[in-house]
Design brief:
Largest sheet: 5 strands, parallel
Helix content: 40-55%
Order of helices and strands: EHEHEEEHEHEHHHHH
Strand order of the largest sheet: 2-1-3-6-7
Keywords: Phosphoprotein
Strand content: 5-15%
CATH architecture of the largest domain: 3-Layer(aba) Sandwich
CATH class of the largest domain: Alpha Beta
Protein name: KDP operon transcriptional regulatory protein KdpE
Pfam family, one: Response_reg
Distance between the termini: 46 Å
Length: about 240
């Protein structure tokens, strides 16, 4: 479980109020909004956080250091997070705790089958749920001594991070929108919109994903998603 990050500070002992103190968590997540939630959760818990926004970036991080915990989103711009989970699960030495995450209700089975130790369903906003998910997979000697203070706290990410995600999708949609790109957009937007309680956009992304799965025409659904994204970007400009 030793964190081999060469820039890490000496191991610190977890406490009742900061139960993840001394851990470095690598979050492989392309959404700025979801990553901001993770940053706040780690900050409240005492853990250090590093971020990779794609498989290539994650593998580059892992060539330099081995985190205590890695949390991998299954839908990434350059492939499936399940592939990285499988690599990590079979690697020697192995990252101590591997968790999958996704807003897809069927993704947990995929993550566990790939070798993940556990799964975090998006949106991840509960501090208690986050801490329990990590601690439940750690050895006893990495737990705080004595009773743990359970904070019933909900994390509220900065809405600017959501706008950054909207800008990212707009950039993706300006490029050639082949089927693979539309699949990524539908998955990404659906997860981020649900996390931000943006029901209208989440439903539009869901309809796009369904049309793609059925092999039906998608021009109308894609245009609807693009229009809703632009509306949200226009709101930011108005502010």
């Amino acid at each position: 479980m030793n964190d081999s990050d060469p820039f890490a500070s000496p191991l610190r002992i977890p406490t009742a109020t900061r139960p993840l103190l001394g851990l470095t968590i690598l979050v492989v997540e392309d959404s700025r909004y979801a990553c901001e939630a993770m940053r706040l959760l780690c900050l409240r818990s005492g853990a250090r956080i590093r971020r990779a926004d794609c498989l290539k970036s994650a593998r580059r991080h892992l060539q330099i250091y081995r985190p205590s915990v890695i949390i991998v989103d299954l839908g990434l711009p350059d492939g499936s997070g399940a592939d990285l989970i499988e690599e990590l699960a079979n690697a020697t030495p192995r990252v101590g705790v591997i968790l999958g995450t996704s807003g897809d209700e069927f993704a947990e089975d995929t993550a566990i089958a790939a070798g993940a130790d556990g799964f975090l369903a998006k949106p991840i906003t509960s501090l208690a749920v986050f801490q329990t998910a990590v601690l439940s997979k750690l050895p006893a000697d990495r737990h705080p001594s004595g009773p743990r203070v359970m904070h019933d706290e909900t994390i509220d990410p900065d809405p600017i991070a959501y706008q950054d995600d909207m800008a990212h999708v707009a950039d993706v949609l300006t490029d050639t929108c082949d089927g693979k790109t539309l699949d990524y957009v539908a998955q990404f937007v659906s997860g981020v919109a649900r996390s931000a309680s943006d029901t209208v956009l989440a439903n539009a992304a869901r309809d796009l994903a369904k049309a793609r799965a059925k092999g039906a025409p998608v021009a109308t659904d894609a245009a609807r998603v693009a229009g809703l994204i632009q509306e949200r970007l226009d709101r930011r400009k108005a502010i």
